[in-house]
Amino acid sequence: MTTFNYTITDPVGIHARPAGLLVKEIKSFAGSAVTITKGEKSVNALKLMALMQMGIKQGDTVTVSVDGGDEAAVAAALENFFKANL
Amino acid sequence: MITIQGKGVSTGVAAGPLYFYQRAKGTFTRRQVEDREAEFARFKEAQTKAIEQLGELAEKARAEAGDEAAMLFETHQMMCEDLDYEEAIEGFIKEQGLNAEAAVTDAGAIQAEAFAAMDDEYFKARAADVKDISTRIVGILMGVVQGGIDSEVPVILASDDLAPSETVQLDKSKILGFVTSGGSGSSHTAILARTMGIPAIIGVGEQLKPEYQGREVIVDGGTGSVVLDADEETRARLMKKRAEILKRQELLNQLKGQPNVSKDGQEIRVYCNIGNPEDVHAVLENDGGGIGLFRSEFLYLNCDDYPTEDYQFEAYKRVLSDMGGKEVVIRTLDIGADKMIGYFNLPQEENPALGNRALRICLNRPEIFKTQLRALYRASAYGRLSIMFPMVTSVWEVREAKKMCELVKKELTAEGIPFSDEVDLGIMIETPAAAVISDRLAKEVDFFSIGTNDLTQYTLACDRQNNDLGRFFNAHHPAVLRLIKMACDNAHKEGIWCGICGELGADLELTELFLSIGLDELSVSPRSVLPLRQKVRETQVRVVREKLLGDLLSDKNEL
To answer: CB A11 to CB B119 under 8 A?
Structure first.
């Protein structure tokens, strides 16, 4: 498992648009499961509505974990995605 | 003639027959199915169809209103395929043997409730999106044909409130305006109407009666009125207004996106004055460069008791987020004088204009001031905030206000609450005292904004509410104009900016003078932005400067 932490800078937090883009992005990596954790709650990042219902806001730090597939490459791509969109 | 009053959320005037949106009203029966696999396959087929339809809608929205509008439907597409949502539907069908219509409705309700229970306004509103996709899938399952407007001529469309997909499916060429009994200023109907540039009036409630179908109406999105069977005079008045709005629209289209630069290259920022968060629409619509004066009084006037920190925070945050990084100058509480609030329990004064008002109240009652400053700093994390103190006369007042800001920042830091380190602090120059010592005040703050209404009243010792004093109340008086120049010059000596946020800022007779003085910003009502821009762009500052400044300081002026 490869993980990284990221602090959300988007003023609305993980709202519909970036959540949707994230799901799209993850679907392009075959064989990797991505989990997003905030505090004690974790969610499979493919679950769009559950991800939005985490209510992740600006200033929150989340942990992104990649399991399976080319973990290092997927984690790097996702980190870039977060920086660009969240 | 019948007049119905609602809330205007998109400006413009339109006339046409009232037409009630025909919603496919079929209801399904909740029942048990025999072949659960086949029922689930029926759902999958409807889901695929829904995703296809949403894809078409996304393309339609992209063509009509841009990428942002299309994204809404792309998100809906993904929601249709959401794993939890689909799993719940699968469970209802395969384990409980429910029919697909009921399964989709129930699964949608679960997700909608989860969103509705969230504490953030944005996420709460997503409940409508989930309901919308569920309605779509159920509609497909029931064989409902996507609705439109069955009318030969364009209409004023009436409904309770329209779902986002309904608004996009509408045949736009058939719609002149919207009237809804429910809805909110940030509902999809309102947003769509503003994007299309047609009037919308919401919240008319039960006054909107189905028997009005087909009657002639005139809607005015500016005032929120809906007039049925208007008499000659009303019709003529509203049609004239319509023509004026269309002319303005043309001006807007030409000037939107253009810089506020004079012919010889001098730039001035044109910002807007607003009184409540909804006004942000008007600011963006008129291409205001920022907000130069956000009067925070509405928060206090709307409440029966002191507004809480959280309540204020939400309002400031909303304006800052909606302005998307453009500067927003929020003025701290300015009550007293002509604006009184019961629960403040302020005693009656002989001379309220010279009494306990604005910053004076804040410094006398630090708990009120601190609550507002905490809310402001918390909101500063969501945009580009500047804070402005009204009714300053002395340096010590500014220092005391700044001390309170430092205290608030220290507290927030200790509590781990985020705020921006780049909040500028400024003051209103609206007393002669402040203008005269502006050289010293300029060392204390990041900007000045001149409140010309009060500055005129105090300089000329003249109550502007008193009708008998009309000819004595002259905002063009050289005493006022010289104080403006003095404040601006002193600001520039200390390297800070100086603007005007009083009504005089929009006075086109003075635009040339203001450019000559070298003011950095004019903050005006949203509808004054474009006429002002036009005037700035026509001016050659170099040609008029010497004469105007000379006249200001000489005795040539008749006054």
So the answer is: no
pTM score, two decimals? 0.59
In a domain, B31, yes or no: no
Residue where one domain finishes, among candidates B251, B271, B304: B251
pLDDT in tens, B199-217: 999 989 888 888 898 899 9
If you write DSSP's letter for every residue of B63-96 in order, what string do you get? Answer: HHH-HHHHHHHHHHHHHHT-HHHHHHHHHHHHTT
CA atoms within 13 A on the CB side of B65: 21
Whether B29 maps to a domain, the answer reads no
Q: Check CB contact of A9 with chain B, cutoff 8 Å.
A: no
Annotated catalytic residue B501:
yes
Q: What pLDDT digit, counting tens, does each position of B445-466 carry?
A: 999 999 998 999 999 998 877 7
Is B122–A20 a contact, with Cβ atoms under 8 angstroms apart? Answer: no
pLDDT digits (tens, 9 = 90+) for B475-525: 899 999 999 999 999 999 999 999 999 889 999 999 999 999 999 999 998
**In a shared domain, residues B277 and B410:** yes
Which residue segment(s) compose the domain that B418 sits in? 258-553
State whether B224 and B361 are in the same domain: no
Helix B67-80 / helix B127-141 crossing angle, nearest 10 deg: 60
* Average pLDDT, consecutive stretches of 10 residues, N- to C-terminus, chain A (86 residues): 88 84 84 88 88 87 88 88 87
**ipTM of the complex as predicted:** 0.86
Do residues B425 and B390 both lie within one domain?
A: yes
Catalytic residue numbers of A read 15
User: Residue B444: is its pLDDT beyond 70?
Assistant: yes
CB contact under 8 A, A49 and B120: no
CATH code of B196's domain: 3.50.30.10
Residue pLDDT, tens place only, B140-183 = 888 765 556 777 789 999 988 887 667 767 777 889 999 998 87
State mean pLDDT over B526-553: 92
Catalytic pick from B188, B281, B405, B488?
Answer: B188
pLDDT at residue B116 in the model: 87
- Given pLDDT bands bounded at 50, 70 and 90, which one contains residue B368? very high
- What DSSP string runs through chain A? -EEEEEE--STT-S-HHHHHHHHHHHHTSTT-EEEEEETTEEEETT-HHHHHHT---TT-EEEEEEESSSHHHHHHHHHHHHHHH-
* Cβ-Cβ contacts under 8 Å, B78 against chain A: 20, 23-24, 48
What residues form DSSP beta bridges with B327? Answer: B384
Identify residues of B whose CB sits under 8 angstroms from chain A CBs: 71-72, 74-75, 78-79, 82-85, 111, 114-115, 118-120, 122-123, 126, 129-130, 320-321, 381-383, 418
Which segments of B460-558 does DSSP mark as H helices, in order? 478-493, 511-517, 529-538, 541-553
Range of the structural domain that residue A80 is part of: 2-85
Q: What CATH number is associated with residue B395?
A: 3.20.20.60
| Residue B444: other Cβ atoms inside 10 A | 19
